Amino acid sequence: MQRQNDITWDEVVENHPQLEGAEPAWNYNESRQGFDVNRDFNADLDYVPEAADLPGNTANFGFFLSNESQILRDLYQELQAEFGGVEAYVDLHQMGANNVIEGTDEPVTIALDYPALGPDGNPRYADDYPEWDQDKSRKYALAAANGVNERADGGVEPGLARYVHHSTRDLPGQARHAFALNGTGTVLFEMPGQQPNAPYDQNLIDIMEDGLWGILHHMADGINQLDGDDFYELPKYWPDTPPVSEPAQFATDFTENAVGESPSDWSPFWQARADQFTVLDLPTRLQFLTGSGSVVSYQTVLVNCTVIQKSSGSFVEMIFTGRCLSLASICLGLREVRMAFT
Predict the structure, then answer these.
(1) Would the CA dihedral through 163, 39, 177, 208 be positive or negative?
(2) How far apart are CA 181 and CA 161, in angstroms?
(3) Is residue 337 part of a domain?
């Protein structure tokens, strides 16, 4: 099971001749030759890929370059035309295992989420997408939770949780987010354990099905009978979003790090490994070898960024543009810097 498809970039250009000479999209893996399909969606359902928009990055909409995203988009539009809108959409995923409910030893058996599009009323989308309704999606996520609990022994599924949802998460290129901006209530289902590494688990599959029945029953009865804010009463397995401080500036030129090694005070954060970062000299710089085989060098890192306070120090989120497909974390003393290489 995988969410990356199998297609060469030459085939992509053959399907979209206007992209001749353009850089591959950021969510295209050149070494494995395929897209991360779940980053290939756009809230403008009539969007046509343009070379000037590529490569793009994870913070923006996708391009409908994969056959899979185009087929799903076309089906969505057909349903819009037939029924005047699409009431609900469910995104079934598999997440990492070994998560436990906050404050307990109870393993997570299912995690649910509404769209991760930044804070409610995010001005980035509010004006352009008036049909966007986060509360509607929360009601459907709550409906799924009710379905899980109603069919559980004793009326409570102890491993039911909210999926990671910090107010800073904003991923518009996902299918569920593109459709949510068009007025659909969307729900993410995450089942722990990824196949083929995790064994087939009928119990977890049954729990997912129970959530789907919950959505269907509440849809038939009237979803507005639910209070979307009750979704927040579900337990979670992740720490709260730290408060945000005033912007600050940080810099490093890597002269304090050993040449030929990964910086000892840096650590990977997501889709990156420590051995992808190497300090070089003449001049002193950091080399980042991406998963796609591209190489990016930084002689000096200097960035204005927002510091989000943590009890152990602080961490900084910032986005670098470049030909990379990774997200990494940099630790500078007590300051952890989250860098999104796009």
Answers:
(1) negative
(2) 24
(3) yes
Mean pLDDT check: name the lowest of 141-155, 175-189, 275-289.
275-289
The alpha carbon dihedral of 92, 94, 97, 99 has a sign of: negative
Contact 100, 160 (CB under 8 A): no
Instruction: Decide the pairing of beta strands 326-332 and 267-270.
Output: antiparallel
pLDDT tens sequence across 214-234: 999 999 999 999 999 999 999
Q: Which residues pair with 170 in a beta bridge?
A: 117
Domain co-membership, 207 together with 251: no
Please say whether the beta carbons of 285 and 298 come within 8 A: yes
Segments forming the whole domain that contains residue 284: 244-341
Residues 254, 321, single domain; the answer is yes
In a domain, 181, yes or no: yes
- Give the phi and the psi of residue 77 in degrees, each rounded to 5: -65, -35
Q: Does residue 339 carry a pLDDT above 70?
A: no
**Domain co-membership, 96 together with 207:** yes
Q: Tally the domains of the chain.
A: 2
pLDDT at 196 over 70: no
Residues in the chain: 342
